[in-house]
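Q: Structure for this?
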Amino acid sequence: MQKIPNNISDSPPINKGAFTHPQSRTNQRALSEQVHMITAPDLSFSLPISRPHFAGRRIAAPRLSWFPHSRPIPSPKIVAAVASKAERTSNIPPPPPPSTLYDVLGLSEGATVREIRSAYRIQARACHPDAAASTGSSGATADDFLRLHAAYSILSDPTKRAEYDRELNAARMLRRSPPRVYRFSGKAPQRTWETDQCW
Amino acid sequence: MADEIYTVAYDSETSADERAKPVPADIAIGIDIGTSKCSFAIWNGAEVEVLQNTQIQSTIPSHVLFKDEMPPEGFSYEVPRSGAEILSGSDAFNMKRLIGRVDTDPVVKSSKMLPFMVQTFGIGQIPLIAVPVNNVWRSTTPEEVLAIFLAELKENAEHKLKRPIRKAVLTVPISFSRLQLTRIEQACAMAGIHVFRLMPEPTAVALLYAQQQQQQIIHENMGSGMEKVALIFSMGAGFCDVAITITAGGVSQIKALLGIPVGGEDMLQNIIHYLFPDFGSLEKMKSNRLLRIAVQNAIHELSSQTSVEVKVDLRDGKIKSRSLTRVEFEEVNHKVFVKCEKLIAQCLLDARLTAEDLSDVILVGGCSSVPKIRSLVLSLCKKEDSYDGIDPLEASVRGAATEGAIASGASDASGSLDLLTIQVTTTSLGIRVDGGDFVPIIRRNTSVPVRKEMVFTTANDDQAEALVVVYEGESRRAEENIILGYFKITGIPSGPRGSAEVGICMDVDTSNVLRVYGGAHLLRTQQAVSPFLEVRMPMADIGQGWSVQALVKIYGSTMDLAATPPNEVQK
């Protein structure tokens, strides 16, 4: 798992123990967040994916509780990502719900922090309940904003984003998805027979 | 997707009368009820107009004057400067410091020095205030006094605008608990005002800042614009609040909020005590009042002078005179300044930012003119000067009126109302577990709207019922936080302790309404046993903490919830 090539140019290294991120401040923030996560387990972490509308019907047994549930299910993020990926390819008529947090923000996986923030703001103006009320756009609910904010809070945090990316990649590896295309060919190591032997 | 929903209208494309047209009939008024001064403003279709009262003042002292005729019909629109005015009746003020507090609160205790009676018994009950009318003590509550004042304010506004006022956006201190906010709503209801929204004071300023940044971008045609990070330091007579906001493209994200009930009033009391240690008793109420005003004026003068002469004619043949230098003033109030410094440092820490990240520092409120306050804020933020585009005394009320216009659905062709503020929670919200620990479910500084859930378990074998006690605060001990209410979950499936699952979900919407949901799950499934309870909080009132103690006494720990170990939650 440790050697999955990381195709996102600006996310911190996978190995949590050794931060070598060039920007010291980001690094600091990431560390302080880590401390925060240790002292205070934040269950909202899995919120966006376990939301019924978002996660799709496949993850878990139908829920009778009427509030969106962030209850533990085995590796929810991975399952969710895979499930909706499958949905998308198997020609199910209704438009699939956004499957990754990047899709929620309408970004590609290589998006920079600046792009993430900007996308969050633009989307917030559309789906924040206050904004939706004044523009009169129908259909936008607090849930849309909650989903957007959950995606943003993970992707705007270097540590959480790295973790999410890793899980996303791991899920794809497990599904034996088609060979990955490296967008940043200069940065990603070429897979060769030798490197494959190291797995 | 987002592009279709909102459009940006440009200034040049609209004529003047087109711009003045869309004013919804029922636009909410903005009210800034300060500890010492009040103001009100409204969006007039093109800009925010700060309204004046019948005495042509735009800031009105927050005093209610009870005159000797019954019922109290008098209303003071001036700080009673003249002795005749003071002697004609008794005034009550500083209600914002007293509202929604119990008599064991240190802030209430410090109000004992005020020239009217604050009746306390020290038993955790709501204090009464009393003023002498016709030589008889007349008792009232802080809410009532505030309501009288708000009603007068409303009448003034209606007279000015020639239409009834129903809705209002009010600014409140960050440190207000939900119980205090409820009391403000009650006072508004008594005055016939529907509270449209209560917004923390510095976030109203943040809105104004976002508006100015947005206008600048439209004028300079700079595209989406840069992200601007601003620290807003707001200090009035009663409260000191700090907010950090990130603004770009008309959206301001509040990153952190922090406030304490410390303000100019504390400085004033320190100085009175320093200069005239023998004063402050109720017997000498009238001279105490005169003294207060004299010292207050002296402190104001110290903003521009380095020393001042405090001279009080006590009207009983005695004249008290003392000199006060700025250095003395700063020494006496050293503790206040240290508290302000700590507040700023903590707020930066909460926002995970450093002084270098800040683009602007905005100082507002009456105390922003105190030289020491200015210098300490600027040096902590490593800035040469503060942002000068905002009037420090009208910032809150203008922000509130802008929010009132936006929330009322007013639109403006120049795009100056095309704004969004993403607010955060001011305190952590959670429940009591393990016999007295506080577990936050929604943490402080979480963006709203927010909805979070946690799973808890039973503390005893075969426990069928659980008491969910909801608190707000930052202490790890539940009893040190403020209780908002409690409810009972029944029908928990029997099993050894730690096996049952109880889900608690908290939801705060954009109007800052807190709802708590709770219910038990069937064992090893995620299905709810019974319909989940939905409770709107706060359901308790101030000084009702004892009823939980009673419940605990009856049931002991038989109805306790326990925190689920994190590893069990993950797996």
